[in-house]
Amino acid sequence: MRVTLINTDKKEFELTAISELTLIQGIGAACDAASISFYDERSMGEILKVEIYIGDRLVFNGFCDTQHETRQGDGYSVYIYARSSACILVDSKSQPFSFNKPSARQLFVSYARDKGFHYALPEIICNDMYEVSIGTSCFGAINNFVSLMTGKEIYADAKNFIRLREESDNIKTLDSLRLISLTKIINRSEPLKIIHYKKTLSDSYNIHAMSRLADRIDICREDYINLNSLPQWQRDFTAGQRLKRSFNSYKIAKATISGWCDDNIGQRFSCCAPEHLDDYALTEKKYCFNASGETTVLTLKKRIETEEITYVD
After folding, report:
1. What Rg do the C-alpha atoms of the chain give, in angstroms?
2. For each successive 10 residues of the chain (313 residues), what is the average pLDDT?
3. Cβ distance 137 to 94 under 8 Å?
4. Residue 156 forms beta bridges with which residues?
5. Which residues have a Cβ under 8 Å from the Cβ of 234 and sit 6 or more positions away?
6. Crossing angle of helices 138-150/104-111, nearest 10°?
7. How far is it, in rounded angstroms, from Cα 31 to Cα 137?
8. What pTM, to 2 d.p., does this model score?
9. Which of the residues 12, 82, 156, 187 could staple to 86 if both were Cys, CB 3.0 to 4.6 A apart?
10. By the 8 A CB rule, do 224 and 197 touch?
11. CA terminus-to-terminus distance, the chain
């Protein structure tokens, strides 16, 4: 593991006395996050950029949000918190606009290209209107569109390519990793059985999206949503996605392994021992380096078929 800092004067510093480093990557957060504590005899000035390498591979490319520097003896004790380069898109508000039959590429050109990012998404096209409302971030303007069209999110990799979060086609085995511990979790507090919704101002909530899985395992939670303000093409899709996402944390596993896990978010895993896991997708990696060594905690989500049906009263 190697860490390079670049200050506002464009001077580079490679750290040699890191006491603790944590790097978190995962679905649901637009930015990766890194926190680093270290000691150095030099005052590095105001830190602008942070780069983290595992071997020769760049795994984190970001900007310093917070820097604490304490003079101790002949040197400095420093703490840095940084977010990955996607923070540029997250922190910048988009210009509100109504797009007629837009594509993901058009939204990328409007909101990300001039900020130093590169396009690596598939061609995603809408045949209707898409509204970017006031207050939406540049990241949200692109991600909301892609999510509505595909049900998947976007992310910016360490080389500033905007890509689609996708689960892998292959399934790897956790048994092949340097597994230290494995915890299985069942969370019944979030899944929904039924979403009742209406699509026009005058309608009652007479359209229903129901999970037959939830019904079978005796989950009774219900919700009501008004989709009148959304474009017609988004309404049924929005209800279905909300039902599916309520199962995101239903069955998860946390695997602690020795060292760094090189697998990408979305990689699917199974496991035979010490516990049986069948087709769980990697949703978060939390890498920790300290005096005790290097470990990575993998959060894996069971891929759930909600068995959704939609009906009208």
Report:
1. 22
2. 97 96 95 97 95 96 97 94 98 96 97 98 94 96 93 95 96 90 95 92 87 97 90 78 93 95 94 82 97 96 93 89
3. yes
4. 162
5. 148, 227
6. 170
7. 13
8. 0.89
9. 156
10. yes
11. 59
